[in-house]
Amino acid sequence: MVARYGLLLGAILLLLGRPLAAAEETPSTPTPRPLAALIIDDLGDRLNEGLRAIALPGQVTYSILPQTPFSARFAELAHSLGKEVMLHQPMQSLSGAAMGPGGLSLHMTHNAFVRTLHANLASVPHARGVNNHMGSLLTRHPGQMAWLMDALQQRGDLFFVDSTTSSQTVALKVAIEHRLPSLRRNIFLDHEPDEAAIRRQFARFIGQAKAVGFSLAIAHPYPETLRVLELLLPTLEGQGVALHPVSQLIAQRDGQRERLWQASLSPWQQGVKSSKQ
Predict the structure, then answer these.
(1) What CATH number has the domain bearing residue 216?
(2) Full-prediction pTM beyond 0.90?
């Protein structure tokens, strides 16, 4: 009797176009590949270095200094190649180093601050986000960071990356408080502009992506950096790491952050919150 039912079930499955073995298989969920994003900063002043950087393979993101000779040209070129563009916003540093055109500083009024930011965004077409150029002084001041995040949030289509040029930065914290899509830099590839050191940092960049699922690196259009990236970026696919625009990395991280925030709202915490109203 059991054998007869087994034959009957097999015949039905064959008529449906499914072999008996298929009924015993369970579909497997593919393991997501680690996500990595790479920003090339400081573009806009030098033509040859900028063109070489934009020619790098893969979904590299380009952060362009405002109101520089090649700001618009580089932004248009990167966008035409399907690559993401950011504004590399100059901000006041502790060292007092010259910021260049479009700098934001502590002495500015709110109106001048916002007006300068808008002019900078207009000078870099297709900018999807902003990160700070220098800024070791300005990024530690919550008031000015609130001005920045308010202005970016009002645009409604921008994200922010904290370049983390100071251990005392509050920029990411303020961006999160303003519910602005945001992330912080994990690794500088070329703090030491030496090819061996850049290779070591690139290995750290990929290692972190594999260990925790994501990594965000910043590099600069130094000749040493460009030589290393031209050689190593094509190897990412073989290492199982996907290079993505920064906006995609932020979308994933913000999604995780939102889920953790929702999970933290236990019934007891919700009751406390409502009792204050």
Answers:
(1) 3.20.20.370
(2) no
